[in-house]
Design a protein that fits this description.
The complex is a heterodimer of chains A (761) and B (161). With 761 residues, chain A is of the alpha+beta class. Chain A has 19 helices and 30 strands. Chain A folds into three domains: 131 residues, Aldehyde Oxidoreductase, domain 4; 190 residues, Alpha-Beta Complex (Aldehyde Oxidoreductase, domain 3); 235 residues, Aldehyde oxidase/xanthine dehydrogenase, molybdopterin binding domain (Aldehyde Oxidoreductase, domain 4, 2-Layer Sandwich). The chains are: A alpha+beta (761), B alpha+beta (161).
Amino acid sequence: MAKAAQSGIVGRSIARLEAGAKVTGRAEYVHNLRLPGMLHGKIFRSTVAHGRIRRIDASAARALEGVHRIVTAEDICKVIPNPHYGPAFHDQPILAIDKVHHVGEPVAVVLASDPHVAEEAASQIVVEYEELPAVFDEVEAMTSTAVVHEALKPAGTFPDLKHLQGKKNTNIALDYHLRRGDVEAAFKAADQVFEHRFRTQQVLHVPLEPFVSAAEPGDATLTIYTASQSPSFVRIEIARLLGWPENKVRVKVPYLGGGFGAKLYIKLEALVTALALLTRRPVKIALTMEEQFYTLTKHAATLRIKSGVTKDGRITARLCEVWWNGGAYADIGPRVTQKSGFTAPGPYDIENVHIDSYALYTNLPPAGALRGFGIPQLVWAYEGHTDIIARALKIDPVEFRRKNLLRNGRPQATGTVMKDAAIDKVLERVAARMGWEKPFDRGSGTTRRGRGVAIGFKASISPTTSVAIVNLYADGSCALYSSTVDMGQGSDTAMAQIVSEVLGIPIEVITVVHPDTDVTPYDMATLGSRSTYHMGNAVRRAAEDARDKLMAMAREVGLSAETTPIPDVFRKKYGMQAGNIVGTGSFIPTYTPTDHETGQSDNVTPFWMVGGTGAEVEVDTETGQVRVARLINVADVGTPINPRIVETQLSGAAIMQLGFTMSEQMTFSAGQCTNASLAAYKIPGMLDIPVAVENEAVDSMEHGGPFGAKGVGETGTFGVSPAIANAIDDAVGVRLTSLPLTAEAVYRALREKQGKPLQND
Amino acid sequence: MSVQNRTIRFTLNGEAVSAEVPTHWNLVELLQNRFSLFGARESCAQGLCGCCTVLVNGRAVSGCLYLAALVDGADVSTIEQPAESGGLDAVQKAFIEAGGFQCGFCTPGFVLMTRQLLDENPEPTEDEIKHYLSGNLCRCATYPEIIKAVQLAARARRAKA
């Protein structure tokens, strides 16, 4: 065995383990899966936003040749008597029961061996509804007489949601409050008080591999193949729905063609489970691109933010009210409301803070987590607001931030003392890369140039558990068993690098066993940039455990573990190439829950992520067109395990957020999404990327992380939207407070500023 | 739904093959259901994302919009076709070296389009690369790395030529 921790592979930009499989088209995705006797399901979806189901007429569909079966909620209840699921609330039925709550909600399924037959039959189903009043706006939902759910049904797993059980006549799924100091007194004492309102639009993840799941019934067992970021959750939730023990449900996940927070918790898994048990045949459902628009989205949000400041530019108080548009089902929205809500005042050292954050039900497609867990919405508001204040006080925006920055050793709004959060370094590196102190070409004529910065931060979701197994074979090769899902973020490679480093074995002899809940141990989920830190720590511990056991075995047989090759140790012990060494590791960080009344906690997160963005833009004053000339993404990611993958994650997250900033927006008419296709919903292509994209991970160390590393997947998104809006303001003096920043929005604002507003059509 | 089948003969990745196909199938369905080739993938189903790219008689087509029966007599090439050398070609190697992918779902389309680009234009400018590949979407937004990969591949191919 080579000396431990000497391979030096952690910190190196090695190619991804699966690189060859991906460039030859051979990487395994659920979409490739074909099972003998498999039926395909096609979903019939609600055409109204809120209504009672009066009648389902499937006679024409049933009569079609090749249709195996039509399934409605009535059938589902035969195999799953209480078919409601969800991570925070058990509010979502597998198929609509009595009522529909949004356009696109699954009402019935057609099963056929030929997916074309199933699709044709689904189009022939007729449903009559009694329409009910609907509510779409998150602020209206606070007081609306249209109530989406008759009673709240929190999942039993969250003790802090118990008080919401059975609450009626409300659309508020969860309210979160934080109180620190006395904001009202501080507003009175302040030299100036600023208040603004911001809005973010509803967008969606658009993984290029749409949702897909299959279920195969066995002898009192069930195997689910699914494009899921949370195989352990799927197993536990399906077992709960069926009333089965966990070990009768097996969940297997290969590579994902993108996830971004969409493929979490239960999406199609409960449906294919019920269908497989009803038909006793394997059933696969693969959604179309259009259907993704009805499945899960990112919260639209309205944010009110108010600050008191002193003449010399100290922020003394900040009040934030946030209304999250959760759509028809809670999904993870209540967690977004709380876990992101407490960072609403931004990375600033503010004595008096008051936060109210509300998760609202509306009759729109459900919203969940999307690359940032609510953070990009909050940063949009607080970094716009902060910039407006700086400009009003005639203080340089970077200097104003510098003056108020939350530094290590100081308490965040929850009371948790900041540590290992390089907020100041990130801001300084953004400013340095932009040459902030140097003169800037402001353009001329109809092309005006401007620049802006923004900085955001995020707490990790806590407390969550990861478990890993390292299996060392007698020939010195090794397998890592982990339920972390590699959806493109490179976790397989990073985890293998950790094993290689600890065991001192080459990366080439390590394989990563993909999530299979019968084989790989529990992991909370691949979300919230938690894997590098949580699973990374578990993997490190598992590898250390294997290393310790190998050393002990070598000592036992009288060999030096330091100098003897691994196969020789096994051969001496077992007399032949035989045996295994199994190392295990688990990790759960410490955590103090926030107080229900005040939102205070002395230990609210195991680590902080920090992302800063600098943007240079050119605005065409005749058309409102905005061209992002330069996008600078700087982050505190701790010490990267694989610097190139980290850089790609930062850059990719920033360009994705650029889409949410400049073009992406779901549009609705009476709750019906009117642009549910890539032809009408514009995600960034190669021509939409900024002329220059620069990325930097600041020199940093996360003391609790494996080899000083921490999460990165979301960090690049934080500052993009407000940095660009701040740059537009800098260029042409107009302030946009709603996303996206389309040419039309910019042009309307320019005309408004000139006193010649455009009429609405 | 009445289904009509047709027997077609064509060349697939250099091999003469035949298949019976329902006339409404698209090329992606033919490749997946009859030949277990999954590198061409249907994603947007509108010919906008490039995930389903297949070469028919040497030209890239959107496999999701191309009727399978139309490849009767044609030369069809997919991402699974091995390079002449037997291993990876210069484009595939460049995508690995530049880290030009993340989830990998769009990668086959990008690789095939890059080959076609470099066949036509061995020394493309950055603007030419962006325009040529603008019909391929990567939701992981690995675009800067893909541009680097194309430039790397162009250099490698010129050096070899």
